[in-house]
Amino acid sequence: xxxxxxxxxxxxxxxxxxxxxxxxxxDEMLRECPVSWSDRxxxxxTLSRYDDIxxxxxxxxxxxxxPSMILPTFGTDRPLIPLDIDPPALTPYRQLxxxxxxxxxxxxxxxxxxxxxxxxxxxxxxQDIVDVSAFCRLLPAMxxxxxxxxxxxxxxxxxQWVEDIVFxxxxxxxxxxxxxxxxxxxxRGLIAARRRDPGTDLISxxxxxxxxxxxxxxxxxxxxxYLLFVAGLETTAGTIRAGLWYLGQxxxxxAAVAKDASxxxxxxxxxxxxxxxxxxxxxxxKRDVEIDNITMxxxxxxxxxxxxANRDPDHFACPHEVQLDRAPxxxxxxxxxxxxxLGSNLARREVNTALQEFLGRFPRFELxxxxxxxxxxxxxxxxxx
Length: 385
Ligand code: HEM
Fold this sequence. Notes:
By secondary structure, the protein is an alpha+beta fold.
């Protein structure tokens, strides 16, 4: 058997502190080695060109999501549903879930999102410097948590679990595994309680729903609930953070969007393009594939670097420039194939509403100190008169 070539090498990483310089990496990868090998996380190929990622996303028979799209794992070896399920088994899960995330259903959550934003922003009134990181995280946690039926009395515990699973996993896998076990136990209890005593929330609705002619069993319910928990909160929080981080350093653009809230949806799309909280997702090869004379072998992992594709000069003019009114803006931050994000309608509405409310109340602000655009650390902002 021929040895895998695993060249050219590029030490690509898309987690933690590596995100500080990831956009320089993309620039270099797109110019020098659009297909490259990284030894991190057990080793993986990276695809960085928009067209290669587009093709891989549509060729699920070759680029499989099994065993998992998440690299490294979210602390569990169980397949997250529907994320880690290939077609055709994927289709009934998508058919089951999509009606709960339509634009119309998500429009109905806007008034509650606005109310939550106003409550949270009230705490900043009269202050000079505020840490907005809790605002960014609490807003989606409360809105989506309520929609799902996650008991909000446990919000502080959820926050810690998300931190351990999503953010600590690259430093200490054991922390993520312990948290994942706790979350699974927690959802076991919650699902049993909703079976006994259904409410008006998503978990109760899923328990009553029909999946290919049958109700979902407890194991499926667990893997769906776990995915919603890890996918639905931190991603939106990261986009709100990215927007405030950027606007806090660009007074003219802040003034423009604060004056005219109709500019915010396009700005949100540009934040999603240039500062997406999900920079990449993995696949596993079901057969050998050759791109640019590089052979990637069956069984090897391939990372689709959505963040690089979003800066591919063949698809975006002046890709590193942030243009808040960019049009068209066909970014692929929500994916582009069979697994396209189920929560995009919700995420867009939450981010737009959070920014509208923030800018409506505090139209002038600046970063009080340097902070990363990503992550969950403090983001201190000086509110200006
Ligand atoms: C700005 C926020 C968000 C971003 C950037 C984002 C991004 C993504 C990406 C990149 C994928 C995988 C697409 C692929 O590989 O083709 C995905 C899938 C998914 N997302 Fe999101 N997401 C966000 C918010 C949400 C929210 C709020 C929810 C809550 C419902 C959610 C639920 C899901 C689910 C269930 C999947 C799996 C879909 C499937 O496998 O068929 N996401 N998301």
